[in-house]
Amino acid sequence: MTSQRAYHHGDLRRAVLTAALDVIATEGPSALSLRDLARRAGVSHAAPAHHFKDRGGLLTAIATEGYDLLAHSLADAPDLRERGVRYVRFAMDHPAHFQVMFQPDLLRPDDPDLLAAKARAAAELRTGVEKRAAPAEDADLMGIAAWSIAHGFATLLLSQNLDRQLEGRSAEDVFRALTGLTFRAHYARSPPPSSVIADDRMKE
Question: pTM to 2 decimals?
Answer without folding.
Answer: 0.82
